[in-house]
Amino acid sequence: MDSLWLINPTLAYRDWQAREAAGADRRPFSARSIVQHQAMFEHFRRHLMTKGATIVSFGAANIDAFWQTPDGRAYSQATRTRYVKLLDRLCRHLVFTGVRLDNPAAPLLYAERWPDREPAPLFLTEAEDARLQAYLQSLPEDLAGLRSRAIVAAFLAMGITAGEARAARMADLRPEADPPYLVVRAHGPRDARTVHIGRFAVPILRTWCARRATLPIDGDLLFTLTPDGRPITDMSFGRIVSTALAEVEFAGAEPSPRTLRNTFCRRLLLAGHSRDEVSQMLGLVSNRTCDRIAATLSSDAHARQRQRIGGA
């Protein structure tokens, strides 16, 4: 038995990935995939800890409970399939090495399948985008209102993820620079990047930074659950975005930070930026997301985009 799995499962998983783990075609995973798999493993392991379970003892009920967490409920079919494949691969290894007696993920392979096609990306129309930008121009005097609008502005103007907004530090946002920008620190498989702030969001973010600097909050997170300095949860981000979108009469099915990120992507594509440029701004290593959103552009928008790219 490999006792390291009992003592330090994080280190055991990292060591196994580096030495032996491979995909279905027996080819070793890329370095980026290994980082992503380690992050997924840690996320699941932390879930088990909250349930009093371990890598050795977890069962099908623990996996079912994982899908019911706030993050799990938001997973796409493709993400759930990736987790099932990871857990099946892990459990098969643990059974082989004598650490486990069973593989509770195996039956799930029959239920989880790669989607036949990607779901249509959700975004604000150009008119809705314009209304939300106008809404963000008013600066509330109350702290909660100001913070909420700054958060919405960050998603809409920079296309960052909820995780990136949660981890952003005061020093990372430079609204006084020329041009204003945010430094998104490296995390998981994503490299560090610099994102310029959309002009419409500069006043609200500049005002928030000045207000945030005066608050007696522990730590230096840009957005916190005041006054204890804890990061804002995904659920709170969702409520903040949903409230703002209701103000501009957004009728879409998913009023979330991801919808604002897609809107940022689509706005840049409409403005003539290339897929490579936009993918880099989003911190993505492929153009898959940009391709899906580009497919929603009208033929006239495609023509304008090709004309701009050709004249660049």
UniProtKB/TrEMBL annotation:
InterPro entries from the xrefs? DNA_brk_join_enz, Integrase-like_cat_sf, Integrase_catalytic
Which Pfam families does the UniProt record give?
A: Phage_integrase
Q: Which GO molecular function annotations are given, in alphabetical order?
A: DNA binding
Isomerase found in the keyword field: no
Key word Cell membrane present:
no
| Residue ranges of domain Tyr recombinase in the record | 119-308
> Which Gene3D superfamilies does the annotation name?
Intergrase catalytic core (1.10.443.10)
Mark the transmembrane ranges. none
Keyword set for this entry? DNA recombination, Plasmid
Q: Which SUPFAM superfamilies does the record match to this protein?
A: DNA breaking-rejoining enzymes
Protein's GO biological process: DNA integration; DNA recombination
**Record-linked PROSITE patterns:** TYR_RECOMBINASE
| Protein name (Swiss-Prot/TrEMBL) | Site-specific integrase
Q: Which organism is it from?
A: Cupriavidus oxalaticus
